[in-house]
Write a structure and sequence with these properties.
Blueprint lengths: L7 H22 L1 H8 L9 H29 L9 H29 L3 H24 L1
Length: 142
């Protein structure tokens, strides 16, 4: 049985890239719309401590995502025919199947059970899809 090879540098690069993506997605790109859909008062700014706590948890979450995703992608490399797909095929495969199986159902559940809007669904699930695409690209090409 072959050992799974994990590139820790690629994982750390994916953590940083997704941290930056999250900042861009939820601040200048969709921040106001997201805050409105969440029911947040945009005139109230979080304290420095709240921001630091949020960033720390975001980095930890990004690390877990990249670490587990790297293992999943490495495990999929043993599937017959996977090598013939090439890098782009593997990136798309990992992104779509992970998003479709693990993120999309949760995002739909939030609309269904928590009565959140479809607009919020679009913002969040769009982020999840792009986040996975960024991580899969880095993990595959590094």
């Amino acid at each position: 049985m072959e050992a799974i090879q994990i590139n820790m540098v690629a994982i750390l690069v994916a953590v940083v890239a997704n941290f930056v993506l999250g900042f861009l997605w939820y601040t200048p790109l969709f921040g106001k719309a997201w805050a409105k859909e969440m029911g947040f008062d945009t005139s109230v700014k979080p304290t420095g401590g709240e921001m630091a706590k949020g960033m720390i948890f975001m980095v930890i979450g990004n690390f877990f995502l990249a670490y587990v995703f790297a293992h999943n992608m490495a495990a999929w490399s043993f599937v017959p025919g996977n090598a013939e797909m090439g890098a782009v095929g593997n990136i798309i495969n990992a992104t779509i199947f992970t998003w479709l199986g693990f993120y999309l159902p949760v995002d739909i559940g939030i609309v269904t059970w928590e009565k959140k809007s479809w607009k919020l669904f679009g913002i969040n699930t769009g982020y999840h899809l792009v986040m996975l695409l960024v991580a899969a690209t880095i993990l595959t090409l590094m």
